[in-house]
Here is the input.
Amino acid sequence: MGFDDLGLHPSITDTLQTLKYSEPTEVQQQVIPHVLAGSDVLAGAQTGTGKTAAFVLPIVHRLLQQQEAAKLSALILVPTRELALQVYKSVQAYSKGTTIRSAIAYGGVSIGAQVDEFKKGVDILVATPGRLIDHLFKGTLDASQINTLVFDEADRMLDMGFMDEIKMILKRLPKHRQTLLFSATLDDAIFKLSKTLLNSPQVIEVHERNSVATPVEQIVYNIDTDRKREFISYLIGSKNWQQVLVFTRTKQGADALAKEMKKDGLAAESIHGDKSQGARERALEEFKQGKVRVLVATDVAARGLDIRQLKYVVNYELPYIAEDYIHRIGRTGRAGEDGLAISLLGQEEAYLLEEIEAILDTRLNQQWFPGFEPDFTKAPVVEKKNSKAAQKRRAKQRAFGQTTGNKRRRSK
Ligand code: AMP
Here is the structure.
């Protein structure tokens, strides 16, 4: 199937040709016809599948057919600033050469500049919930004409506790509208949310539930926790990897690791929620340009990161929330490019790997790297029962219903 077969406006197919998109991805083939037909859609699709174009292209098509003066008719809600920027860039790319106007609204930056943009007229707005509410309450945005509402990465919105904000926003939008809900994982929480948001939706799942986008190769190295840093620098250096995204669990961990890697002679930077928007964008841009070789990130900061041809993702520490593993490794292997996801497994993290394997429904091969074999005579670093880390982990797992993770998920 080609883009021509989807009946999209010629201006869009021309743009896609320039972007060298030769054919629609699976999620695009399945979702676009339903959106064009006006149906609500619930789509299970991870990043890297081409999901953004699956909702942006039909929105652009509809606007091109209407050819009315700019009025806010499509709202795309996303959980993080990074994803907002990413989606906004896609909207701009897909509507290039048309008169369609798009804008972006996220927190952490001046609200005035956003208001000035709105005054010029907006057709499509990409927004994070908090800042959108600010605009709705201040009356700096007219939401009365919105006829298409998109939730992107809805699972992450729920994870981040945006339910109250979502309810507030819905109260201010027209009841009669088309709603599209995209989520990397389709689980009970998402189905419950979809019941309140969607009207007889078409349900589309492009991959098996909770499977990772192929063809990412996954390797798990058993390693002593106190040798992880030395090992990762050695691996990157000796294999001459150029663009490596490394995940840590904490902001402090990300900063410390980037600092240590710099000492090892690697151009490394960290991104996380405590850094200013400007610093995050700068680090990301330098990473994309190849000036920064290793980007160390926390899960939230890396959400929405889209780097075409990113080959290497390293889990320096396994995530407490097993689904985050899927999000992390979804940063590589995007749109059919191959990728490699390496996980460094300390002895004390074995239970986290089990939870990941349970949701992937597969076992991941564990191996030793010559010269970095784990020393099993060493006692594993055990988390102190009531340490801050243990309390934080338990709270997080409770929030995600993972306290009995393995059993609950396996019995599904
Ligand atoms: P997404 O899953 O929306 O984050 O998209 C992942 C990447 O795939 C982005 O870099 C897109 O530019 C790219 N992409 C989306 N659709 C296609 C397509 N049909 N052909 C080639 N690349 C695509």
